[in-house]
Amino acid sequence: MLLPSLDLINSLFVFVSKALDIDRWNLECEFNNSDHRTELNGTDRLIVRRGQPFTISLYPRSGSYQPGSSSLQCTAETGPQPSEQHGTRVSFGLSANIDTSHWSAAVVSPPGDMVALSVCSAPDAPIGRYTLTLNQSGRIEFILLFNPWCPADAVYMNNQQSLGEYVLSQDGIIFRGSYKHPISTPWNFGQFESDILDVCLRILDMNPKYLQNPSKDCAKRRNPIYVSRVLSAMVNCNDDNGVLLGKWTDGYEDGVSPMFWKGSVEILRNWDTQACQPVRYGQCWVFAAVACSVSRALGIPCRVVTNYLSAHDTNGNLLIERYIDENGDLIQSREMIWNYHCWVESWMTRPDLKPDYHGWQASDPTPQEKSDGVYCCGPIPVRAIKEGELTFKYDAPFVFAEVNADVVTFMKKKDGSTSDVVTSAVVGQKISTKRVGSDAREDITYLYKYPEGSDISTILDACVSAWTRAVLGFGVLLTGTSPTTRTTTIFWSTTRLEPATPPVPNPCPYGLSYYS
Are 189 and 263 in contact (CB under 8 A)? Predict the structure, then answer.
């Protein structure tokens, strides 16, 4: 006996069912936004998080909803060119129950004149602006964000207190100053302030990848790894219409000194109202703070991190090479150590890497060196830095050097020859962030490196030495377009270094240290 196909059965069901004729609807924004922890954005529009159901009220034009005889077809679309191929367009009908593993819809009210429709997005759906079409008549607009409260979302964080700090908190502390005297700087991230979410979505829409291929870019917005790397590039303006222009020399008359900013809101609004022209001016903590604001607004848990005695390695050999003359005076070098440098960490899984590298991922929006031809850096698992996994994506050698590089001082003699004077390991001290639920400083150096002198630290030092010899001998990782490599420059520019004032040289013999 020949049985009918499933497609035929579904088509017959639609044929005998009467499409629900929708007259009007209520998005129940106040309830849904509160349920999805987006009510601080306001309740005048629907803002929800992926992988979590939301409920809207539908009012049929005539008659009432009858299970089994009323049909409803839903189509969710995002981006200017939605397509099923790219996963930016998906159609689905009514189910008996909501399935949170993919797009689904179910009626959760008894038959009557009002239909309570529960809709759930896939936990890996692209974030952004959406249109939900109901039976080709009703068009509902909403914004979909990452959901760190959803276990199936790549940004899931299983700690309510941490979520309150790294997603919901609009105020925080950024540490500046020096290794010996860290200074806490209050900062207003303001991710829920009026219009800020719209500015954050505009940042995504202004990135070159979107301008070149909107469909592909919107599809990739399902991946927090991709989004955080885009933000790393877009918070600075070196390759694009990014948010901030950096400046590390005196003279801020045509803008605002980085020292004067107290929060991200004014910066983001200025960029938005000035036709996406870069805001003048930023330095490392400002770049990091703005990136943190945008990440939290989009639903990615994020925090600002400060690395004291932070190295800037330009050639990937994991060494900071300094030169002095025979009098001990410092000769201009391409590489430096700065009293501090700030970046951000974002919380997410890393299915593209081997297991156990989920969690905090470091990325740096300050434009220092190019990665894949663009001024961006990361994300790289913090654990990969600690374990010396220098081939992991993205930009592991550069970040590793910031916290682990050895400082080698060479004496340049009058005859032109050089000899190494001393090698020291002073880089990467008191790596700091704000403690959850407190304004106190939390030292997270242990997340980035093993204690100096420990057995595993000694083993890693040997591996790093082998890496350094490979770079010096064969040019490994000096150039390339692979996601794991960084294209370096052959010149030194003090305008791309942190912080505002370079460290003052220590007048000790032979210039063995910059620090007092």
Answer: yes
Contact 277, 271 (CB under 8 A): yes
Domain boundaries, the chain: 14-145, 170-510
Chain-centre distance for alpha carbon 296: 9
The reply to whether 302 belongs to the active site is no
Q: What is the pLDDT of residues 99-122, one digit of tens each?
A: 999 999 999 998 888 999 999 999
236: nearest Cα among 368, 339, 337, 345: 368
Please identify which of the residues 240, 313, 364, 406 carries the catalytic annotation: 364
Q: Is 341 an annotated catalytic residue?
A: yes
Confidence of residue 455 (pLDDT cuts 50, 70, 90): low
pLDDT digits (tens, 9 = 90+) for 190-222: 999 999 999 999 999 999 999 999 999 999 999
Q: What does pLDDT average to over the chain?
A: 86
The reply to whether 358 belongs to the active site is: no
- Domain 14-145 adopts which CATH fold? Immunoglobulin-like (2.60.40)
Assign a CATH topology to domain 170-510. Coagulation Factor XIII; Chain A, domain 2 (3.90.260)
φ/ψ bin of 124: left (φ > 0), alpha (ψ from -120 to 50), beta (otherwise): alpha
- Could you give the CA distance from residue 366 to residue 224 in angstroms, rounded to a whole number? 19
Q: Which of 36, 86, 312, 341 is catalytic?
A: 341
Task: Give the single-character DSSP code of 39.
Answer: G
Q: Considering the candidates 29, 284, 292, 302, report the single residue annotated as catalytic.
A: 284
